[in-house]
Write a structure and sequence with these properties.
Length: 953
């Protein structure tokens, strides 16, 4: 601003009137400058004026009546620090002037040297200097604020690695609380901020030796906590010419997130590129100047340029025909309207082929809604247009066929009616005089003609009632059979010369031309349409039309057959529902009957006056009905597992004789044998000892279950007579096991259903014999899972024989038995196990279950101990000398599986018998892998327990 463009307010503090007048005259003499002068002689008067007035500049004498020396200057500056002050004195003391300047005066004038020029120069200089100093201070304040509040880490350091100054952002980036914390903690930049200190040493070497002034690089940095981040470092060398020493200024940016974002952006761009390249249609993009910015592979094929060659070019630079101008105008229009475009165009591809395409184009916008380019997609509709034209040509045919379809799909329409409609429409379509329509018999593959035209005269010997054509030597004969043999449609306008022609029967009308289409659905031949003697030569259009009609014919045939099958399925379902209802009613009776006996006799046991004989009788009834109920439940669970696909088979090679002997020994101890010994003779038949050692691959558990089911079935249906279990070997290397009884027998008709679920021979007839109707169904499933066969030979009133057959194996048995079956039919009852003075640990957390086992074992004179969890079981077993452990699996603290494993680490010999409610095969396998010797499934009966104990006592 010019000092002459305004009125300047000047304050003069001078106690000598003469000097004040002289100053006023000098001031007035300054050309072009207008000043308002105020004069006071004391400091106190000046203070009063300064409180209420503003001045552009103050001139003051240092020696005043009420103030003296530099104190006067200090007082004035304190009163008006924003106003420039010029000192006027009569002493030519330059040192005093320098001190005044240092205290804040803008200038120092001597009275002896004053004139208008000096005063003008001092005013201009002082005001401008004060203004520049003020601006400098404001600028320094702004830069200090920028330094302190910048989000970029700013620093100053020495060349030897000491920080001189840092801002808060620097402290934050490197994990320090504040700048003071950073300056205090960081003693060596190279060692504390760089994971690789040599980088910092190299930078300093460039600054010192190579005289590099500025460095910018990406480098990894260390935070205070030892973690790394990627930073962008800017450094500048600042030289001190006086000392020859330089310092380093710079800033650090944490670009870890930016780098991560850049990587993500590159990955996203690559993903988009891959996505575009996998789009089967040409895709392109352009910028605001209509220059290509990218495209996919399909667009490269269309345009004849690679994406790299295309980028930066306009359409006119890559297409040299009239279409370039058209596309350019369409792009401009898109920019003007901002509305997406969709238009059809004939486009010439780079390979010279012209195709019909549809363009889809739209503008690209940035996040602020500004248009930045164009993106486009080209859809090839050539094939679609051709198909549409073809479709339009066939529209009339399809409309007629729609009406025909309605007729063919009417409910209740017969195959003959369907055939007639198809034939008549085919004849009309092809203008054929003759023809027939027929279906293929699903059983014998005969062609059955349901409708045909009169193609014979009186000399024909063919009977047209129930007309059907059969294969000859597994081939359909003549022209009509050629299509059926090859499953291909054809026509011929010279039937007599066709390779498949076999002539026409006597009395058959001559054929001028012939067309036939086999009716096929899902790859199956279901019928045929044949036509002859059209008014014009047959062509492909005729063949295609009849093919469509034949497709309808195929669907109609399949629909009709499906309806018939649905009717059969419905009847079967109704029968199944009936059987299930009967089964549920039967199950209700079968379960409630033993439950009724168990509950009733259990209650009677608690009544007074019951004698010992009655008590034994009641117990026997309860035990017998408990066995019945357990078998019922087992059958239901077993069938559920089979149908759920959870049946697990674990087969191994076993000696046939040994396996059969083991099953026999168990059955000889059963209640079924002992309780019926006076009414039913139970015998066993076996081949020689040598042949009994033949091997078969079998799951012993499932095989035992099969034999049990067949024997239980025999005892159920045999009141008096004989039951025989036996086996023999036939000539085709199979073992045949049989269960023969002299019971009620099964009729031939019922023998086909006895292996079905929920079926007994006759629900009303067998009511006295009870049962779930699942036993034989389970048995059949088990036999099939073991790769065997099962069948029955029976006669009403004479009994039944059930046979099962399994293939023999070569090699040795995987499992050896200590019991060898002798060549005899004499049956022996095995002695009960002896437990006298045997020490047995029962691991069971359920009191009732333990009480039951304890009673059974103590009756055998065993000494019984108890553990209620797996941990206790391990401790007691390893610290005591037990003869046997009965181990439950589901236990608190430690499972039975883990308890067995732990015991086996120390004791490999002690017999461990698992007694558990887990019946699944995988649980059984898991227990044996852990180290158990035998596996009992709850509920445990006296017989089951004795069978197990027999193996180890």
């Amino acid at each position: 601003m010019s000092t002459r463009s305004k009125i300047w307010k000047v304050l003069l503090i001078e106690d000598k009137p003469g000097d004040a007048v002289l100053f006023q005259n000098y001031l007035a003499a300054i050309e072009g400058m207008t000043c308002e002068l105020s004069v006071v002689g004391k400091f106190a008067e000046a203070s009063d004026l300064l409180k209420n007035n503003s001045y552009n500049i103050i001139f003051t004498n240092l020696n005043l009546p009420d103030s003296n020396g530099l104190n006067t200057l200090s007082s004035i500056i304190n009163h008006k620090s924003d106003c420039p002050v010029v000192v006027i004195t009569g002493f030519n003391d330059k040192d005093a002037g320098l001190r005044a300047i240092n205290m804040g005066a803008e200038d120092y004038l001597f009275k002896s040297e004053l004139n208008s020029f000096i005063i003008e120069k001092s005013i201009v200089y002082s005001i401008e200097r004060k203004r520049l100093i003020h601006q400098l201070r404001e600028s320094e304040t702004r830069f200090r604020r920028m330094f302190e509040y910048s989000s970029i880490g700013i620093f100053r350091s020495t060349s030897d690695g000491r920080l001189l100054e840092v801002n808060q952002a620097f402290a934050d980036i490197f994990g320090y609380v504040n700048p003071e914390d950073a300056l205090k903690t960081i003693k060596n930049i190279a060692l504390q901020l760089y994971p690789n200190p040599s980088i910092r040493y190299q930078i300093m070497e460039d600054f010192e030796k190579n005289k590099v002034v500025f460095k910018q690089l990406e480098v990894d940095f260390l935070r205070k906590d030892g973690s790394l981040f990627n930073g962008l470092l800017h450094m500048r060398r600042i030289d001190d010419e006086a000392t020859g020493i330089f310092i380093v200024e710079g800033f650090v940016q944490n670009i870890s997130d930016q780098k991560k974002a850049d990587r993500q952006l590159k990955e996203n761009l690559q993903f988009l590129k891959n996505l575009m390249d996998n789009i089967p249609s040409p895709v392109f993009s352009k910028d605001i100047e209509l220059r290509y910015t990218g495209c996919n592979i399909e667009f490269e094929k269309y345009i004849g340029f690679t994406e790299k060659e295309l980028i930066g070019k306009t359409i006119s630079e890559v297409r040299f025909d009239d279409s370039a101008e058209f596309f350019h105008q369409m792009d401009q229009k898109l920019f003007e309207t901002g509305e997406k475009q969709q238009f059809e165009h004939k486009l010439k591809f780079a390979n010279g082929e012209t195709r019909d395409v549809v363009f889809h184009k739209n503008v690209i916008k940035d996040p602020y809604g500004n248009v930045t380019g164009i993106i486009g997609l080209i859809l090839d509709i050539t094939d679609k247009k051709l198909a549409l034209e073809k479709l339009q040509e066939e529209l009339s045919l399809n409309e007629a066929m729609t009406e025909l379809s309605k007729q063919l799909l009417k409910p209740g329409i017969s195959i003959s009616e369907i055939s007639h409609l198809i034939l008549e429409f085919s004849r009309e379509l092809t203008q054929s005089q003759h023809g027939y329509a027929g279906t293929i018999d699903e059983k014998n593959e005969d062609l059955i003609l349901h409708t045909f035209t009169e193609m014979v005269n009186s000399g024909c010997k063919i009977n047209f009632r129930n007309l059907r054509f059969s294969k000859i030597n597994d081939k359909y004969p003549k022209l009509w059979g050629h299509a059926l043999n090859t499953l291909h449609s054809f026509f011929t306008n010279s039937p007599q010369t066709h390779k498949a022609s076999g002539g026409t029967p006597t009395g058959h009308l001559p054929l001028h031309n012939f067309l036939t289409v086999p009716a096929i659905i899902n790859g199956r031949l279901v019928g045929q349409i044949a036509l002859a003697n059209s008014s014009h030569p047959y062509d492909n259009d005729d063949l295609d039309g009849v093919k469509k009609l034949t497709n309808l014919f195929s669907i109609a045939i399949e629909k009709q057959r499906s309806i018939e099958e649905m009717i059969k399925a419905r009847e079967k379902a109704e029968l199944s529902d009936k059987l299930k209802s009967a089964f549920l009613a039967n199950m209700s009776h079968e379960i409630r009957t033993p439950l009724n006996a168990i509950v009733g006799f259990a209650q009677m046991l608690g009544e007074e006056g019951i004698g010992l004989e009655e008590t034994h009788e009641f117990k026997a009834v309860i035990i017998k009905n408990t066995d019945v109920l357990l078998r019922l439940i087992s059958d239901i669970i077993e069938m559920a597992m089979i149908e759920a696909g959870e049946l697990k088979i674990h087969s191994e090679n076993r000696a046939v004789g040994e396996t059969m002997n083991q099953i026999l020994q168990i059955w000889m101890m059963s209640s079924e044998v002992s309780e019926n010994i006076e009414k039913i003779k139970f015998t066993f038949e076996a081949p020689s000892t040598k042949s009994s050692n033949n091997i078969f691959k079998i799951d012993s558990l499932r095989f035992s279950q099969i034999i049990d089911n067949l024997l239980m079935n025999a005892f159920r249906f045999t009141r008096v007579g004989e039951i025989t279990l036996g086996y023999h070997f036939n000539i085709d290397n199979h073992v045949v096991i049989f269960v023969k009884d002299t019971g009620v027998g099964i009729s031939k008709e019922d023998q086909t259903t006895i292996f079905d679920r929920f079926r007994q021979v006759d629900e009303l007839k067998v009511r006295p014999f009870s049962g779930t109707g699942l036993g034989l169904a389970i048995t059949k499933k088990l036999v099939e899972h073991l790769s065997g066969e099962i069948w029955v030979d029976s006669e009403i009133g004479k009994g039944s024989t059930f046979f099962i057959k399994f293939p023999l194996e070569f090699g040795k048995a995987s499992v050896q038995s200590s019991v060898i079956l002798e060549e005899t039919t004499t049956l022996k009852i095995v002695n009960e196990p002896s437990l006298v003075s045997k020490h047995i640990l029962v691991v069971e957390d359920n009191d009732s279950s333990f009480d039951f086992l304890e009673i059974l074992l103590k009756r055998k004179a065993a000494v019984v101990y108890r553990a209620v969890n797996g941990k206790e079981a391990v401790e007691k077993t390893l610290s005591n000398n037990y003869d046997m452990v009965l181990m439950d699996l589901q236990l608190p603290e430690m499972s039975g599986f883990d308890a067995i494993k732990t015991i086996r680490l120390t004791d490999k010999e002690i017999p461990i018998i698992v007694q558990t409610a887990f019946s699944e095969q995988n649980e059984r396998d898991k227990a044996f892998e852990a180290g158990c010797n035998f596996y009992l499934i709850k509920p445990i009966t006296k017989r089951k327990l004795e069978d197990a104990l027999l193996k180890f006592c």
